Amino acid sequence: MANNSRVTEFLLHGFSDIQELQILHSIIFLIVYLGAVMENLLIITVIIYSPHLHTPMYFFLANLSFQDIGSISVTVPKSVANSLMNTQVISYSGCVSQVFFLVFFMISHFYLLGVMAYDRYVAICNPLHYETLMNKKTCIQLATSAWTGGLLYSILYTGSTFTLEFCSNVIYQFFCEIPQLLKVSCSGLYLAVIWAITCGTGLCFIYFSVVVFSYVRIIKAVLRIPSSKGKQKAFSTCLPHLIVISLFLVSGTFAYLKPISSSPSAFDLFTSILYCMVPPVMNPLIYSMRNTELKTALWKLILSFVPRSSKKFSLQ
User: Which residues contact 174 (CB under 8 A, 6 or more apart)?
Assistant: First the structure.
C-alpha cells in the first residue's frame, strides 16, 4: 500500500498459518488471559472489601492491578479472536486503539511504580509523618497524576505515530506494536515521533530517578534498624515492589530497545509476550506470596461466601 490514506486495515502475522497451531495458541492465550484477569480482580476485590487494607500501599496496589487488567486486555482478546476465526485482520481504527491504550496503560503503570516507591520511602524513612504526608487527598492526587501522565503521553505518541505513511499493512506481530509500525513506515521518523520519544524518555527517567532515590534512602534507613526482625519486616514490604519494577523494566526495555529484525522473528514474538503478558500474570502472585495481610484478608473473603453449616462442618 502506498500510504496511510489507503490503509484501512492491517494484517497481523504473529503466529503460524496452520489452523491447528492457531487454535492451540488461542487456548494458551485465553487461559493466561483469564488467569491474569481473575488474579487482579481478586486483588482489587480483597482490598475493597477489607477495611484494614484501606491504606496508601494497597490503594496504589489496586490501581496497579487495574492497569494490569487493562494492558493485557488490549492485545490478547483480539489475538485469540483472530486465531479462532482464522483471520489476521485488524482495522485501522482498531490498530490505533491498541497502540493508544497499550501505551496509556504501560506508561501510567510505570509512573505508578514510581509513586509506590515514594510511598515506601515515606513509610520507612518518615514513619512518624506517614499519615500526614500520605493522606487520602495526596494519594488520590498521586494516582491521578500517574493516570493523567499516561493519558497525555499516549495521545502524543499515538497521534505522532499515525501521522506516518505506511508502505505496507503487514505487521509481523500478534498486535499493533509500535516498533513494527515504524518498521513498515516509508516516511522515516517525523519530528513529532522523535519529540514524543524524547518526552517519554525524559519523563521515564524522572520517575526512574524517584525509584532509585527512594530505594537508596530506604536501604540506608533499613540498615540502621537495630533488630533483625525489624529489618526483615521493612524489606518484606519493599521486596515485592522491587521485583515488580525489575520485571517491568527488564521486559519492556528489552522489547523496545532491541534491534528490530528485518524478517519475521520468533524472538520478537517472545519478547512481546514477555512484556505484554508476564507482568499482569506475575504481579498479583509476587505481591501476595509474602504479604501476610493480603493472604489473611483473601481467606476471610473466601470464607465469608461459605455457608455457615459448611464452616461448622469444617471446624469439626
Answer: 12, 14, 15, 75, 79, 269, 272
CA dist 34 and 29 (Å) reads 9
**The CA-based dihedral angle spanning residues 52, 56, 58, 61, taken in that order and rounded to the nearest 10 degrees:** 170
Rounded Cα distance between 44 and 137, Å, is 20
Predicted pLDDT at 225: 73
The sheet with strand 170-171 has its strands ordered as 89-91, 9-12, 170-171
User: What is the grid cell recorded at 54?
Assistant: 484501606
Share of the chain above pLDDT 90, in %: 22
pLDDT tens-digit profile of 49-58?
Answer: 888 888 998 9
Q: Which amino acid is at 161?
A: T
CA–CA dist 58, 43 (Å, integer): 9
pLDDT at 294: 80
Looking only at the bridges linking them, the beta strands covering 9-12 and 170-171 are parallel
User: How far is residue 34's CA from residue 38's CA, in Å, rounded to a whole number?
Assistant: 6
118-136 residue pLDDT tens: 888 888 888 888 888 899 9
Of the candidates 244, 252, 248, 245, the one whose C-alpha atom is nearest the C-alpha of residue 271 is 252
Question: Three cell numbers at 3?
Answer: 500510504
pLDDT, mean of residues 232-238: 69
Whether the CB-CB separation of 212 and 246 falls below 8 Å is answered with no
Reported confidence tier of residue 211, pLDDT bands at 50, 70, 90: confident
Half-sphere exposure of 83 (CA within 13 A, CB side): 24
pTM above the 0.85 mark? no
Q: How far apart are CA 292 and CA 1, in angstroms?
A: 57
Cell 497502540 -> residue: 99
Of 96, 89, 47, 55, give the one whose Cα is nearest residue 74. 96
Which residues have CB under 8 Å from 22's CB, separation 6+?
15, 16, 83, 84, 86
Q: What is the pLDDT of residue 2?
A: 41
